[in-house]
C-alpha cells in the first residue's frame, strides 16, 4: 500500500495548489496555479506531461474546476459542500476521452487527449485507480477551520482528523481543554 499512498500524496498536492490555510481573518488562500506556466510546471514535476507539451488557459480553467470537484469528493471534508452524487466531477470527467488496452496480466486506461489536457486526463486516471482500489477514503481535509490542508491519513485505523498532530491537533486539544476547564469554574 506504500506506493499507492504516495500516489494519493500527488492528488493531495494537486488539491493543495489552492492553499486554504488562513494567515488572517477572511483569507481567501493562496492560488498556486496562477497561470498556465504554474500548471505546466506542476504537471511536469509529476510526469503527467512531457517537456514539449504546452498548457493553455482552457487547460488552466479545467484544472481549477477539476481540483475543486476532487476536493468536494473527499469523504471526510467538513469545510466544503458535498457533491454526494458526484455530478460536478462526472461533468468534468466527461470532457476527457480515454481508451482501454486489455492484456493478459493487466488492463490499462490511457488518455486520448494530448498536451495539458492529456496531463489532466492522466491525473484523472490516477484518481480513478485510487478510488477503484478503495484508497480514496485515506484522503482527508484537516478539520481545523483555519487550516483545511488536504492530507493522506497514514494512521492504522484511518481516522485522522488533523494534517499534523503537532500543530492543528495540539491546538484543537488545547482549545477543548481550556473550554472544559473554563466551564468547570
UniProtKB/TrEMBL annotation:
<dbReference type="InterPro" id="IPR023286">
    <property type="entry name" value="ABATE_dom_sf"/>
</dbReference>
<dbReference type="Pfam" id="PF07336">
    <property type="entry name" value="ABATE"/>
</dbReference>
<dbReference type="InterPro" id="IPR021005">
    <property type="entry name" value="Znf_CGNR"/>
</dbReference>
<dbReference type="Pfam" id="PF11706">
    <property type="entry name" value="zf-CGNR"/>
</dbReference>
<protein>
    <recommendedName>
        <fullName>Zinc finger CGNR domain-containing protein</fullName>
    </recommendedName>
</protein>
<dbReference type="InterPro" id="IPR010852">
    <property type="entry name" value="ABATE"/>
</dbReference>
<feature type="domain" description="Zinc finger CGNR">
    <location>
        <begin position="138"/>
        <end position="180"/>
    </location>
</feature>
Amino acid at each position: 500500500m506504500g506506493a499507492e499512498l504516495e500516489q494519493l500524496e500527488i492528488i493531495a498536492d494537486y488539491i493543495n495548489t489552492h492553499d486554504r490555510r488562513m494567515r488572517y481573518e477572511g483569507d481567501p488562500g493562496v492560488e498556486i496555479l496562477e497561470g498556465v506556466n504554474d500548471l505546466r510546471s506542476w504537471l511536469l514535476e509529476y510526469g503527467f506531461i512531457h517537456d514539449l507539451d504546452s498548457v493553455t488557459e482552457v487547460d488552466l480553467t479545467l484544472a481549477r474546476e477539476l481540483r475543486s470537484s476532487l476536493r468536494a469528493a473527499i469523504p471526510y471534508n467538513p469545510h466544503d459542500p458535498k457533491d454526494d452524487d458526484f455530478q460536478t466531477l462526472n461533468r468534468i470527467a466527461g470532457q476527457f476521452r480515454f481508451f482501454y488496452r486489455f492484456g493478459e496480466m493487466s488492463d490499462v486506461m490511457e488518455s486520448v487527449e494530448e498536451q495539458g489536457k492529456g496531463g489532466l486526463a492522466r491525473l484523472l486516471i490516477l484518481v480513478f485507480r485510487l478510488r477503484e482500489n478503495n484508497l480514496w477514503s485515506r484522503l482527508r481535509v484537516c478539520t481545523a477551520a483555519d487550516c483545511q490542508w488536504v492530507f493522506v491519513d497514514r494512521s492504522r485505523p484511518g481516522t485522522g482528523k488533523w494534517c499534523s498532530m503537532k500543530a492543528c491537533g495540539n491546538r484543537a486539544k488545547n482549545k477543548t481543554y481550556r473550554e472544559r476547564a473554563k466551564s468547570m469554574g
